[in-house]
Each structure stands twice: as C-alpha cells, then as structure tokens.
Design a protein that fits this description.
This protein is of the alpha/beta class and 560 residues long. Helices cover 31% and strands 24% of the residues. The protein contains 17 helices and 28 strands. It binds zinc ion (2 copies). The site of one zinc ion (ZN) has 5 residues, from α3.
Length: 560
Amino acid sequence: MPSPDTARAGRPLEVVPLGGLREFGMNMMAVSWGETTIVVDAGVLFPEPELPGVELIIPDLSYLRDQGRRVSALVLTHGHEDHVGAVPYVLPYVHGPVYGTPLTLALVEPKLEEHGLDATDRLVPVGPRDRVTVGDFTIEFLRVTHSMPDCVALAIHTPVGTIVHTGDFKVDQTPLDGEQFDFHRFAELGARGVLALFGDSTNIDRRGYSGSEVEVSDAFEEIFTSTTGKIVVALFSSSLYRMQILVNLAERFGRKVAFVGRGVVENSQIALRLGHLRLPPGLQIRDAEVRHQKAGNVLCLATGSQGEPQAALSRIAIDDHRHVQLNADDTVVFSARIIPGNEKAIGRVMNHVAHRGADIVFEGLKHVHVSGHGSAEELKLMLSLVRPKFFVPIHGEYRHLARHARVAEQVTGGATRVLVADNGDILRFDRESAEITGKAPSGRVLIDGTRTGEVADEVLRDRRHISADGLVVPVLAVNLQTGTLEGLPDVVTRGFVVDERTDAFLRDAAAVLTDIFEGASLEERTDIGLIKERIRVGLQRELRRRSGRRPLVLPVVMEI
Ligand SMILES: [Zn+2]
Ligand SMILES: [Zn+2]
C-alpha cells in the first residue's frame, strides 16, 4: 500500500497558460495541484486599431470560473499592464489574497477603485525572498531587474517539485535603485533541482545583452546640452527608471520638470510616494506653469509615445494642448519602443511635431531607449542558472517560443526537455515527466471603455450595451489633402431606439457631424486617426446630451 506521501506525490501538477503564448500581452497562467489553484499574473492586451471601440483584450476566464473555489490566490510578478491590467476582471474568480510587491499593488489599487472593487484588505505586499503558503504551494519571490522597479520572479514549490516563473526580466547589473538581480537564489534553486522553468521569450531574437537602464543617460545628456528650447520626452507611464534618469538630468541642467498626461501624472505620484522616484523640492512644476517658464528651463515628461490620439503628445503636436506649446527650438524625444501596429500613428504624430518646427529624436537616431527584456545571452544565463528538467517558453509569438526552445536545447545539451505550448494547453507534470494532456477553454474577451467593468461577449455585435443603446456609425468622406468634407456626412444605425428625441437627433445628424468636423483644426482634419477620434468623442457627447443614450459610436472615415 502506498504511503500517504507517495500518494500525494502521485497526483500531478497541472499548469494552464491562459494568455501570453503565441502572442504578446495578456499574460496569465493557472497552476493547480490537489484542491488548490493559483493564478500567476492577470494581464491585458491592447487592441490594434482594426478593432474600433475595443479598449482592452483580456484572456477568456472560463477555466478559472470552472475551477470555482479552488482558485485561492492571485500572484503578480510586476506592475506592467500586460501583467496586471486584467486584475479587476480576474479578481471576482479569486477566493483569496492578491500577492505582489508594494509598487505592483500600488499600481493595481486605482484599477480596483475605478471598477468599484474594494479589495484593499486582500492585497498582500511581499518582498524578495519572502515566502507565502497557499494550500499545498509555497510561493517564493525572487528579485529580477526589468524596465520598472520592484519586479519579481516566482519559485513555486509544489508537492511534485519546484517550478520557476521568470516574469519579465533582463539582467541589469547597474540598477538605478541598487536592487540587484538575485543570481544567487536562482543558482541555489538550480542546484537543488527545478522541475520546470517558464521563461520570458520577448527578446530571444536579439543578440547579446539588452543593456542597463542607465545606458540612455549619454544620449539624453547630449540632448540636454544641445537643446535651447523645451525638451519634451514621450515615454510609457511605467518607465519609472527612465523618469528618474531624466529628473536627475533636469536638476543638473537647471530645468524644471512637468508631468503631462494622466498616466505619467498618476504613476509619478505613486512612485514618489513609495520612494521609487526622487524629486528634489521645487524641481517639479504643474503643466499649467510650463508657459510661464523660459522654454530652456523646462523638461516635460509626457504620455503618447505610441501616437495614441487622446494622449498628451498628440494634443501638443497639433497645438491643441491647454498648457504646452511647441516651438522651433524645442526637442521632442520618443523614448519608447514602437509597439508593432503603432508605426503609422507614431509617424503621424512625428509629422505634426515637425510642422511645429521642433527637432525629433527617436531610438533610430540616438540611444534614447533600452529594452526591459533580456536578449539571447541573458535568457541563456537564466537557463544555465536554473537547469530545469522541463522548460516552457512563454511571453512571445510562436516564432519566439520556437527559437527559445532551440536555444534551450543548445544551452542544456538536450538535458532539459522543452514543451512549446499554446494558450489553454493543459500541461501535466509529475516528478519525472511532463506532457500536454488536453485543452482548457481559452481565447480572448474584448472589453470596451464605454461602461466600466462590463465584460462583453467575444463577438462585437453581441455586446450588451449595443443591445441596450445600439450602434451608431457616422460615415464621412474626407479629402485628407485639403481637410474638407466631400458631400454630406451620413449616419447608419443598428438597434438604436427611435423615439422623439433620437428621431430629432438623427434628422440633424448631418449638420451635427459637419459642425464637429469643422470645429477641428486643419491638422486634425487631415489626419485620419485624429479626426476619427474627434468625431467619435464629439458625437458621443452630442448623443448623450440630446438623446440621453450611449450607443457605441464607430466612425467610418472614407479617404477621398
Ligand atoms: Zn514587464
Ligand atoms: Zn510583459
């Protein structure tokens, strides 16, 4: 008769990646043994412009729903949106605490508030080398370096062995905050034996090492030395190390710092509160004060590095920002990677900036951005340290996972077995073997921003608010050379309730649309991205004001 211990060890460990495999974004994974399931990360994916009206994409959560009360904890590796953006949607399926570092949790908190979720007492802060117990799991947190502070990898000790999840990482040997990558612990775990490693594959196709965050200092120093006007740097609002480097330079070069745009304002406040950003007193000014300063004394840190039409830089670029104007002596720096799909939008913003006469600097011209993900040599180092029995590449499209698999075979000489998995695959591990045994429900759920917290159905037309208030499609033909309307705008509706007020509105629709269009500047009228956004926001406002309804507005702008 087997002893209780061997009976326990005989039960397999089940790991189901629910997002982040064969795609970039919405990273999420469920780990189950016995009666306990834990969820690692709950990320979002940002939609490409082809999905109008959709603000976020999150993983299909049916698997977690099916696990019911077994889902006992959510464990977060770091505060990037592709790891925490879906926390408000995942939380209702989690019957227990949310573990994360203080910065990660501080970035999650406002999201929960926005969704009206009061879960503060469930947020449990953890630090490197801390251990927490959830059911039969002991979860250990390991410091890793990345493009933002306070990031961890996980060692999950289970009854069948230890699995290591790298989270996002690179090896930054000169971290700005002195928080060193915990090589020692990874090596110790490797020496004791690791059942499986789940490793970030984002930059597997880059040679060498990614480099330290501080490497951008030289390029920025040149820019600070040579610019006589304002310096405007567009960056991700989570790029807190980059912000610190820029704040330090601003202090040295006698410039005041203004945070411009909601994301950078909010995140800089959180970082200041937690000590991840240090600003000497008197250095910071509000964006409203920018115009009262000599241009040569100002540094603006702004949102909009991806050409998002609502972001600060897009407004500044078309001279439509309340407080910040661009002039010929100014320099605008795009200090971020171009997310594939955003090239055109970023290009359009650059054109507008060029029209203002300002100088433009981006990664291709100067080293103003460094990746937060380890390149091939760093990923090899992780494999050498951990020496897992099994390796599952994560965070990447299929080609990245496949390349990472090849690299793992080279590094370990075949001693490590590699499983290239897909979202929804059920990976079953025991102490000696691993296999993909089946498929759990997985996929994408689209979420629109018109009603906070509403999880819509997978198919756009089925979304609940469309059935309530319908769909309104304004159709405009625009000459993008001259910025003029060709003919009268039209409106197509589906499921839009016809009553006295909406009827009156529809009769006026062409005139309303013409007004909104003509209220835009020439630059907006000749930029298809900006004019669509203008029409969408303008028409939504008019609809609400005049009919009290909130249909989904999907503008179609035909280019003549
Ligand atoms: Zn990240
Ligand atoms: Zn990530």
